[in-house]
Amino acid sequence: MKKIALQIAALSLALAGSASAADLRAPVKGPVAVGPAFNCAAGQFGGWHVGIQGGSVYHQANREDTDGLLTDNAGWTMNKWGGHVGGQVGYDFTTCSTVWGVEVDGAWVFGTKNFLPDNPGTAGTTDGINTRMNWLATARVRSGVALDNLLIYATGGVAAARFRTTWVDGTDIADIKETRWGWVAGIGTEWAWSRNVSFKFETLYVGFTDRDHRSVLPGGTFTFVHSDSAWISRVGLNYRWGAPVVARY
């Protein structure tokens, strides 16, 4: 009996040793691929996005009449509130808490038509300046920090816009249509409602380069200088897809 008990004890020790060795040889669990939304806050904003946006436009038009077509003043500044509606497309890269990417947008602008009479004291006058912004487009980079579901970012880049200005003095009419380039900068926030849907709010300032226009009219040759800027406030809705998968252990 004593011999049998010793054999059973030896067998138990051998089995325990084999189990320990097997545990030591067991492979270490590798990384598991998960979506960025489950790994880091910024992952919710990665990948492609496309959306719609709209809001308000505060257009400031500076017009200078260097040759005196309108004789009561040499320069005018016209300010007008309007609206805009359009869309955007872009792509964002992410780390654990930061986002950087590019976005291109375009919008139709309405309600910025502004008329300044040459002589407000004359009833029924039609002489003066008629100006408006027709559309606006920007191409921007942006970079920001994600805090839970909220992204706070700064943005900047180039802008283009279409303007139409008509100078009228009796039979002298200069109708000037132009597309001008400029720059844009601003700040914004974006809130991730789900992995694919987000809402954003932006405030942008857009400035456009000055341009001289020379028009040959019945009353002579006249030169006009146009300068424009605008404040843009807008809200938008984005749909996202195609974010890269992030590995997590």
Overview features:
249 residues, eight-stranded antiparallel beta barrel, 12 strands, disordered C terminus, Porin, 1 helix, mainly beta, elongated, 66% strand, 10% helix
Uncertain spans: 19-38, 245-249
Strand residue content: over 45%
Question: Regarding CATH, which class?
Answer: Mainly Beta
* CATH-level-2 architecture: Beta Barrel
| Tally of contiguous helical segments | 1
Mean pLDDT across all residues, rounded?
A: 83
- Approximate helicity band: under 10%
Q: Can you list the strand order of the major beta sheet?
A: 2-3-4-6-7-8-9-11
What is the number of domains?
1
Outline the biggest β-sheet. 8 strands, antiparallel, barrel
First-to-last CA distance:
53 Å
Strand segment count: 12
Rounded to the nearest angstrom, the radius of gyration is 33 Å
Structural class: mainly beta
- Shape call: elongated
Question: Would you give the CATH topology?
Answer: Porin
What letter string, H or E per element, gives the SSE order?
Answer: HEEEEEEEEEEEE
What is the topological layout?
Blueprint: H1 2-25, E1 32-34, E2 47-65, E3 75-94, E4 98-110, E5 114-117, E6 128-147, E7 150-169, E8 172-192, E9 197-208, E10 211-217, E11 220-241, E12 246-248
Antiparallel strand pairs: 1-12, 2-3, 2-11, 3-4, 4-6, 5-6, 6-7, 7-8, 8-9, 9-11, 10-11
Please give a structural write-up.
The protein is mainly β. It has a single domain, classed as Porin, CATH 2.40.160. Helix content is 10%, strand content 66%. The strands form 2 sheets. The protein has an 8-stranded antiparallel barrel. The longest helix has 24 residues. The two termini are 53 Å apart. The relative contact order is 0.21.
